[in-house]
Amino acid sequence: MERHVLVVYPHPDDETFASGGTIALHTRAGTPVTYLCGTLGQMGRNMGKPFFANRETLPDVREKELRAACAALGIQDLRLLGLRDKTVEFEDPEALADRILAVMKEVRPSLLITYYPGFAVHPDHNALGAAAIRAVEKLPADERPVVHCSAFSRDCREKLGDPDVIIDITSVRDVKMAAIRAHRSQSEAMLARMERDPAFRAVREATLRQEVYWTYRV
């Protein structure tokens, strides 16, 4: 059992799609989880299917969805960094790392979950993952949490090898699905495609059975 888990991702729904099952297993075991969410995903393209949000309302919609997903997953400590979606790579990396470091010093996590820099496709993913790891590097060696990184670029297994952490999440599948449905603006199109496309459904169903991570050696 971990002492405290800190999750650092840039967008509402990253916590669910990348690590919803893992988070649910931790909260079910009684481990406190803090989610440090970088942005409100205000530049996202998905507006629901059919549309129910627009560019002006999307930040509020996504924040409400995020809070509902966190409730489903058992996350009681949600913190918003207030960064601008699709611009995280332009933030001062040291200043951003220091903001994350302040939270680390407060909650003293034994485990950090974030994106693997350079292997998470989206520039926001890579930039915030790098800042989170930089924050860990600023801690004394005996205070550093273990770092588990999500990665899904096409070359991640070629360059990183196979993931060294594989977590069976079948026991909390329904919890992850509830969190996915909570992110309605982002998930409705995906769920509709799962209904009509067996090959796509098989790919998505795999993410409801296990979540994988690479341990980042800091």
TrEMBL record:
Signal sequence range: none
Domain of life: Bacteria
Source organism of the structure: Alicyclobacillus macrosporangiidus
GO MF term set: hydrolase activity, acting on carbon-nitrogen (but not peptide) bonds, in linear amides
Family annotation (InterPro entries): BshB2, GlcNAc_PI_deacetylase-related, LmbE-like_dom_sf
Pfam families, per the entry: PIG-L
Protein name as catalogued: Bacillithiol biosynthesis deacetylase BshB2
